[in-house]
Amino acid sequence: MVGSEALAAEAAERWRRGELVAFPTETVYGLGAAARDPAAVAKVFAAKGRPADHPLIVHLAAADAAPAWARSWEPRAARLAAAFWPGPLTLIVPRAADVPDAVTGGQDTVGLRVPNHALALALLEAFGEGVAAPSANRFGAVSPTTAAHVALELGDAVDLIVDGGPCRVGVESTIVDLSGEAARLLRPGGVPAEAIEEALGTPLAASGPEAPRAPGTLNSHYAPRAELRVVAPAAVDAALADALRAGRRVVHLGAEDRGAPRIALPASFEGAARRLYAALREVDAAGFELAVVALPEARGLGRAVADRLKRAAAPRE
Ligand code: TXA
Ligand code: MG
Q1: Would you tell me the crossing angle of helices 193-200 and 75-84 to the nearest 10 degrees?
Q2: CB distance 254 to ligand 1 below 6 Å
Q3: Which atom of ligand 1 has the smallest separation from the CA of 109?
């Protein structure tokens, strides 16, 4: 397609010049900068309002580019890359000596991922190098799943926004830390943890207090302005009734009408993941002060949806 080739060439040229290009992936939109250009990477932190010691994921066009970023590329990394790349999985591995501190937040590890999105891959191939990219939102805010969300979040701080339509997966990549003895789940995401455990043949260790810093794992994150109440499925009706009785501008995030205003959130895990961030934005845009939503089961993609809902509902720091 000529259109996407021209777009890829423009994005690559801008990355070479040290500019910021927001681009679609299958999970959420990323705010990309040339990973080997510390001045460009610094602009990402400034645009997001993100603390500089929080590391960024390096996005690559293909798995065979990954070992150059790692001090060691173990068989288990190769196995997970072969099983899930391109796809919504980020691998944390010991970093190669020449990976800029700006990308890793000064840590001894680097996060790597090959996204499963044709346009993203076209951009990365045209650039031919790694692109450091966090989600293209202001720090702590809801991740963008459309180009319009990116424009709302970052506006003039970004030099080019590549529009690839709504993101297919809708929640961020699963992050697995391979820098220690046991493979560890740092963030549930687009690849179910069960699938990773099956590919590894061992269970994933849970993220402990000594885990490397991961801001997506701060308690309050992905937060809308409105209050969010995440309750057991059986408690949804009572929570809505209480709020309505108290005269609150409440909305139900869900698949079925429950006698209150409703913003659609599909019952399937995949559907809920795809719609989640847009639905949270709609709560604010429609002026609701409170949203009530049922907590999904923590299996498959439901685990990522449940994780994001809990963080969106957590007290703000
Ligand atoms: O799906 C995704 O992963 C999206 C798209 C754009 O690829 N990216 C994304 O980036 O969610 P970000 O920066 O919003 O979240 C990445 C998370 C952060 O919590 C960061 O701290 C963590 O990954 N991370 C990155 N490098 C790390 C490292 N070396 N060690 C531990 N955590 C790391
Ligand atoms: Mg993020």
Answers
A1: 130
A2: no
A3: 29
164, two tokens: 């690839």
3-class DSSP state of 314:
coil
Q: What is the dihedral angle through the alpha carbons of 137, 143, 145, 147, rounded to the nearest 10 degrees?
A: -10
pLDDT tens profile 130-183: 999 999 999 989 999 999 999 999 999 999 999 999 999 999 999 999 999 999
Buried b (16+ CB within 10 A) or exposed e, 135-148: bbbebbbbbbbbbe
Q: Per residue in 48-96, pLDDT tens? A: 999 888 999 999 999 999 999 999 999 999 999 999 999 999 999 999 9
User: Ligand 2 is a single-atom ion; what residues have CB below 5 A from it?
Assistant: 135
On whether the CB atoms of residues 293 and 213 are closer than 8 A, the answer is no
Supply the pLDDT for residue 211: 47
Greatest CA separation for the chain: 61
**Nearest protein CA to atom 30 of ligand 1, as residue:** 212
Q: Cβ contacts of residue 296 below 8 Å, gap of 6+? A: 269, 272, 302, 305, 306, 309
Ligand 1 atom closest to residue 217's alpha carbon, by position in its atom list? 19
Determine if ligand 1 sits within 6 Å of the CB of residue 176.
no
Residue 212 has a pLDDT of: 46
Q: Judge if pTM exceeds 0.85.
A: yes
Whole-number Å distance between alpha carbons of 249 and 170: 27
